[in-house]
C-alpha cells in the first residue's frame, strides 16, 4: 500500500498530546486505540500523518460525547505554540498582512489545507479548506477556525470587533459552546468554512507588531517553505479536482486532467507516482464524500447518489456496501460491518 502524501508539522501533534493529557487521556492508550506509533511526538520538528491528526480529534469527540471539542481545543492553544507560523502573523505590520501570511505559509503546518482570502460585504474572509481525503474533518476544521479566531482577537488587543463564522458542518449539539467561544454570528451548513473580519481593521497593527523581528521571522518562514519540509501534496490537488468534477457530474479522466491543466497521460503518471490509479482516486473521494453526506443526514439517498456521479441509486448502494460493509440506510443509522470482516488498519504516524 502506498504511503499517504498527507502530512502535518509534528509540533501540532505535540500540542494536541498536551491538550489530550490535560483532559485525562493517556497518550499511549489513545495511540493503541486509534492505531499509530506514540513515538510520533518524539521529534516535534518532523512530519507526521494527517490521518492520525484528523482521527485523534474525531476520536475525542466520540469518546467524550462532546461535538464541540474541536472549537474548544482551538481556543486553548497558547500563543507561540506553532512557532514560525504563529509569529509570522503576530509580528506582521498590519492585520491584512497577518492574514496574507497565513495564506502564504499554510504549508509550513500541513499539505492538506488550502487557505484563501476574499472581500465581500465589508469583510475580508479567510477560508480554510481542509481536505476530506484523509477522513472526517469536522473537529479539526472547528479547531482551525477557533485557533485563527483566537489569534485575530489577540492581535487586535482590546478592540471590540465582530467576527463572523461560516461552517460547512451541520449545527452541533453543543451549539452554546460554539457561541461562548466564537460569538453569536455563526452559520452552519454553508458552502465553505470561513471567518469574516471587518475591512476597517485591515490596516490596524497587531498587538505584537515589531518590524525587525518580523523581518527575521518572515525570512525563517520563507526558508522553511522553500526547503520543502512538507512536500506539495499532488494527490490532494488531484482529489480536489475530482471533487469539483463530481459536483459537475463528470468525474472522467479527461475532465479532471483539464481542471489540472495537464494532459491525460501526465495525470496518469502523477497518479502512478503516488501509488494510485485514477479509478482508485475517484473511488476514494466518493467514499469520503458518501461518509460525510450520510453522517450529516441532510440529503436523500438519491441526492447523494447524484452528487457522487452515480446515475442509479442501486449503483451507489452497491458501492456503499463495498465501502462500509452495510447499506447506506444502515450506515446512516450508525450500523457498521462486523469487526471480523472489516479490520481497522493501523494509521501511519511518521513522515517516512
UniProtKB/TrEMBL annotation:
Which positions fall inside the HTH araC/xylS-type domain? 236-334
Question: Is Transport among this UniProt entry's keywords?
Answer: no
Species annotation = Roseibium aggregatum
| Entry GO CC | cytosol
Q: What is this protein called?
A: Helix-turn-helix domain-containing protein
Which SUPFAM superfamilies does the UniProt entry name for this protein? Homeodomain-like (SSF46689)
Domain of life of the native organism: Bacteria
Q: Give the residue spans that cross the bilayer.
A: none
Which keywords appear in this protein's UniProt record, sorted alphabetically?
A: DNA-binding, Transcription, Transcription regulation
Q: Which PANTHER family match?
A: HTH-TYPE TRANSCRIPTIONAL REGULATOR GADX, HTH-TYPE TRANSCRIPTIONAL REGULATOR VQSM
Q: Which GO terms describe its molecular function?
A: DNA-binding transcription factor activity; transcription cis-regulatory region binding
Q: Does the keyword 4Fe-4S apply?
A: no
